[in-house]
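Z., the sequence and structure:
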Amino acid sequence: MRDRLRAAPLFADLDDEQLEKLAAATSEFQAPAGQALIERGRPGSGLLVLEEGEALVEAPEGHRRLGPGDVFGERALLGEDVSRTARVRAETDVRCLAIARPEIERLLAEDPHLADRLRQLSA
């Protein structure tokens, strides 16, 4: 799992210890094309990494395509409002990694550089 997380550009610079902690809080799931991966307005429970397939972010400010290695669900981790701000739908069959919110928050507290990178992603 550690190497799979490292493949995501967001986590590429983390050391092995940080990646091991993340891996312990990471689960994998698959979804068919058309299925919602995130629903707008729902509470954010963590961060997701698209490992295989394509997805579409449907946000008020526009649409954006996601591919392998892209991270989504990050906005709910950066502010006080933990509600999802967009809908993300699988365009093809997908495989994702889901990282639990408490572990992401702990890592962000330890690594301000990672928090900055997450903010850049959500801009």
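The chain has one domain: 2-122. Helices lie at 2-6, 16-24, 75-78, 101-110, 112-122.

Let me know what you think.
H.
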